[in-house]
Design a protein that fits this description.
It contains 21 helices and ten strands. It is an alpha/beta fold and 612 residues long. The longest helix is centred in the middle third of the chain and has 54 residues. It binds adenosine-5'-triphosphate and magnesium ion.
């Protein structure tokens, strides 16, 4: 996986990044061209205004003429109207580009997140991904949409002003323009520092958000660990960093504008002094002098604009790189082009070509390690017939979940192959396999919404009656109907208004409703009470018949009825057989079972004694 999180990018301006970003602006090329033209027009109008003033002074005021003044007023009005139209147009165009770009990148990113495999999520913190796709993309849209406007306007304005000034009086123009490079250097210096401080503010701000998040989510743990004081101290440090940086940015901004405008005024003063002299001697008209003065007082604005845009782009460059790297991360588990050609991709499946699944599974010499870890499985072999119910038992960390994750193709074997119905599953599409899978996890995840919606998530066209039947099958109906709103109860974000056991039952029903050929229960009943579990066991027997199923459970009574029990130790099958066979064998399973059985009996007896 190429994606590496959070390098600090402090590189110089890099055109390559912006070229790649502009590729994502492709649907907006026409808008961008229109923006360029509008902005050049806008700059043109801004340059024309002082010339009109000159005409008014030289042609009417100083000679005391009034005839033709109406026509002049019309001309002036036309320029004003032209400018208004330009401003209106560029506001609409830029808004469109900003929002459109942001939306497009987010859409591409969202789609990518759906395709990326588990291993990506093992490595990348969720908070970072969310920040990338929300604040970073927003910033990019803004930079592309509005930064370009300022850039084209400023460049257009500077070039046109320079041309007009030179044509009016080239000697004086050259003198006045000497301040331009000085302003440019000063502007660059300030803008860089201002932005650096703003960046610091933003970075600290996201840390503060993170702190709030942890402070709120971990409030209970904080209390039990007596961490309140330490947490508060860390928080105070963060906020004072942010305060200092904010103040620095404000002071720099406050200094910047007066300095630059003083320089502009100095140039204007020079023009006034030199030009005033020329006006007296008659070498220059009074109108021309006013033109010079307005240009020189205004030209610092486009220059500092350009400085700001470059500084902004340099800092947005980091956001651009992060976003582009993220949306261009190639999923490690991807269907080959041939497979996509035949069976379609996740968003456009070609279901008509999908083979019917039976559910035979074979591990053939599979070796597997997580990204950077040690081997979890080594030359692992296993054959499972369609319809078999397989139970996996073994110590924590022995590799049970890993085996089922591999079957589901959440991860792929590092070496060797896994065959479904005799065919390497890489030759079929991921969606084909995963739409025939039912998976109930140890930590079930529900989506915000009602219980009914959550169960229906398993098969979107299921009727209400089918939803309720599925709930009854796993014996979830009893607790569901205890809620005032029954099936229409809101489960809260991530289902956190329900107990873990309740969430497990709902995700069990959700998996069942899709009628999957392969069913995986990974500690799916670990959080329900013994009584509920017994009822689920009955359900499991009927629900799993005709499906290839895998049950992982620490509570061995759950798996007694499995066709085959596999004891997994250090990624190897060390014992296998039916419950009766393994008990007769008097090995690992026998010991585990008798210990647990004795414990349960003792608990039961203790329970009875306590009650009486
Ligand atoms: N996402 C992961 N990234 C890296 N290593 C992992 C990951 N998941 C599991 N492992 C490692 O792989 C090994 C097998 O883990 P696995 O989850 O398969 O165990 P398990 O038998 O399901 O355990 P348990 O009974 O506690 O659920 C462990 O050593 C674990 O640390
Ligand atoms: Mg596990």
């Amino acid at each position: 996986m190429q994606y590496q999180e959070e390098q600090e990018y402090n590189k110089r301006f890099d055109l390559g990044v912006w070229k790649r970003l502009i590729f994502y602006a492709k649907p907006f090329y026409r808008h961008l061209i229109a923006i360029t033209i509008t902005m050049l027009l806008c700059a043109g109008f801004d340059v024309i205004f002082p010339l009109l003033t000159r005409e008014a002074i030289d042609g009417y005021v100083s000679v005391g003429r009034t005839e033709g003044l109406g026509l002049f007023a019309l001309k002036y009005m036309a320029v004003v109207v032209g400018q208004i139209i330009c401003i209106f147009t560029f506001c609409i165009l830029s808004g469109h580009v900003e929002v459109g770009m942001t939306r497009r990148i987010r859409e591409i990113g969202f789609k990518r997140f759906q395709e990326l495999p588990f291993s990506f999520y093992d490595q990348t913190p969720v908070g970072h991904m969310i920040a990338r796709m929300t604040s970073d993309t927003g910033r990019l849209g803004e930079t592309v949409g509005w930064g370009l406007i300022d850039l084209f306007w400023s460049a257009g304005y500077i070039v046109m002003t320079a041309c007009v000034m030179i044509s009016l009086n080239w000697k004086m123009s050259l003198m006045v323009m000497l301040v331009m490079p000085v302003i440019a250097v000063i502007a660059m210096w300030f803008q860089k520092r201002i932005l650096k401080n703003y960046r610091e503010v933003r970075k600290t701000n996201s840390k503060i958000t993170g702190s709030f998040n942890e402070g709120i989510m971990g409030a209970k743990t904080t209390k039990t660990l007596v961490r309140e004081e330490a947490n508060a101290a860390e928080f105070v440090e963060l906020t004072s960093t942010m305060k200092a940086a904010s103040i620095r940015a404000a002071v720099l901004s406050a200094l910047f504008m007066p300095i630059v405008s003083t320089l502009g005024s100095l140039a204007a003063a020079y023009a006034l002094w030199k030009g005033g002299y020329d006006v007296f001697t008659g070498a220059m008209s009074f109108g021309t002098l006013t033109v010079f003065i307005s240009y020189t007082t205004q030209i610092f604005e486009p220059i500092s604009n350009i400085a700001r845009i470059f500084a902004e782009m340099q800092s947005a460059q980091a956001a651009a790189e992060r976003v582009i790297t993220m949306i261009e991360t190639e999923p490690e588990i991807a269907d080959t082009p041939e497979v996509i050609e035949k069976y379609g991709d996740s968003f456009h499946p070609k279901k008509e070509n999908w083979p019917v699944i039976r559910g035979d599974i074979e591990f053939r010499d599979v070796t597997f390690r997580y990204n950077s870890g040690e081997k979890v499985l080594s030359h692992f072999n296993l054959k499972i017939k369609a319809g078999e119910t397989i139970a996996l038992v073994g110590e924590t960390g022995s590799g049970k979940s890993t085996i089922v994750n591999l079957i589901c193709r959440f991860y792929e074997p590092t070496e060797g192959e896994i065959l479904i119905d005799g065919v390497n599953y890489k030759e079929r599409s991921q969606l084909w396999l995963q739409s025939h899978l039912g998976y109930v996890l140890q930590q079930p995840h529900l989506f915000s919404g009602t219980i009914r919606e959550n169960i229906r998530y398993g098969r979107l066209d299921a009727t209400d009656a089918e939803v309720e039947a599925a709930a009854r099958m796993v014996n979830a109906e009893e607790f569901i109907l205890k809620f005032e709103k029954g099936y229409d109860t809101d489960v809260g974000e991530g289902g956190n208004r329900l107990s873990i056991g309740q969430k497990q039952l709902i995700s069990f029903a959700r998996a069942l409703i899709a009628d999957p050929a392969i069913f995986v229960l990974d500690e799916a009943t670990s959080s329900v009470d013994t009584e509920t579990e017994q009822i689920i066991q009955e359900a499991i027997k009927t629900a799993l018949s005709g499906r290839t199923s895998f049950i992982i459970a620490h509570r061995l009574s759950t798996i007694r009825h499995a066709d085959r029990i596999l004891v997994i130790q250090h990624g190897e099958v060390t014992e296998q057989g039916s419950h009766a066979e393994l008990i007769r064998k008097k090995g690992y399973y026998y010991n585990l079972y008798t210990n647990q059985f004795r414990e349960e009996r003792e608990n039961a007896i203790l329970g009875i004694r306590q009650q009486s």
